[in-house]
Amino acid sequence: MKMIEKFKIIDCDIHNALGSTSDLLPYLAEPWKSRVARAGLGLLYSGYYSPVGVGRKDAVPPGGGAEGSDPGFVARQLMDPYNVEFGILTGNLFSVSVGHDPDYAAALASAYNDFMIEHWLGADSRYRGSLLVSFLDPLLAAKEIDRLGRHPGIVQVVMSSATRMPLGQRYYHPIYEAAARNGLPVAIHPGAEGAGQSNPPSAAGYPTWYLEWHTNLSQNFMAQLTSIVCEGVFEKFPGLKFVFIEGGVAWLPHLMWRLDKNYTALRAQVPWLKKLPSAYIREHCYFTTQPIEEPKNMNHLKAIFEMIDAEHILMYSSDYPHWDFDAPDQILRWLTPEARGRIFHSNAKQLYNL
User: What's 21's domain CATH number?
Assistant: First the structure.
């Protein structure tokens, strides 16, 4: 507890949930309101089964409902005991981007955003919101960013890391343009890989077990990051920042090495890049800690942190209320006070202007 009391914390991945689908009904126009009331949300999921479930059993609110659905209980269980100064809400509706109906997906994202602003940001001044968008129609996503992007409680745009095509391609650029116009970072989060209209959850195809699915999420992040850099997103939008949530970090050094090596030989294919790919990553990208890959020999992770300059690009996240929650007093205990202060607090404070 002494460590917790000494440092303020910004948690960059709190999964606030709906109590029930009826929570969104007041924020939906017709025909979507009747559709949800009659048939539910109808979102598509990967179907991979976690034997322990996704949520912590002790995170069910006292009054019932889904884990993470009560703003007050989340504050009491997470924010208060761990000295969390700000909690970045990321939601759990990333599957809006892997369905088949772009108009419904946009309406659902908008309804969630309005619900989140009223019921979460209004409940506790420590909460900050991520603006959910569906990229099934990037122009509608850009419109949503312009609608709410200047709200004082909104700190980033968030969307699925599961896609039909890599995220660097021009199809997505209206989203990035709108985010840059509103001064917001763009974050991606896993969860829908292998569902609906999305990529397979691994480079080899569709695995059998949730264990494989969960492990292979970092493959998708590697592909998305490579695309974003090589397609010149950061040259086209030089002020844009990207946040990679819940994809791990141990893979980052060898990806940067491989990108830099291949760029030196193949730079003619990407003439818009003005510097090494690793330089764009260090200048424009942030990564959250959870699920941190802590080996038995912690010196190995220390070496990786040095390779990626983790002190300046890593941000603490708990993933509350999920089963693999990383308590801030239990992970990365070997960090120096200065590094801990940056990773657990000031990096996010600077990025999100908190």
Answer: 3.20.20.140
Cβ pair 85, 10 in contact under 8 A? yes
Contact 126, 85 (CB under 8 A): yes
- Under 8 Å CB-to-CB from 116, ≥6 apart: which residues? 16, 89, 91, 129, 132
Contact, 180 vs 239, CB < 8 A? Answer: yes
Cis peptide before 291 (omega within 30 of 0): yes
- 224 close to 163: Cβ distance less than 8 angstroms: yes
Give me the residues paired with residue 55 across strands.
322
Task: Read off the pLDDT of residues 94-151 as tens digits, 9 standing for 90 and up.
Answer: 999 999 999 999 999 999 999 999 999 999 999 999 999 999 999 999 999 999 999 9
Virtual torsion, Cα 113, 116, 121, 123, nearest 10 deg: 160
One-letter amino acid for residue 306 of the chain: E
In what helix (H) or strand (E) does residue 130 lie, and over which residues does it extend? Answer: strand 127-132
Distance set, CA 135 to CA 98, 104, 172, 295 (Å): 9, 12, 7, 36
Express each pLDDT in 313-334 by its tens digit.
999 999 999 988 999 999 999 9
- Structural domains of the chain, count: 1
Residue 29: which domain range? 2-351
Distances (CA, A) of 282 to 37, 229, 230, 277: 46, 11, 14, 9
pTM exceeds cut of 0.85:
yes
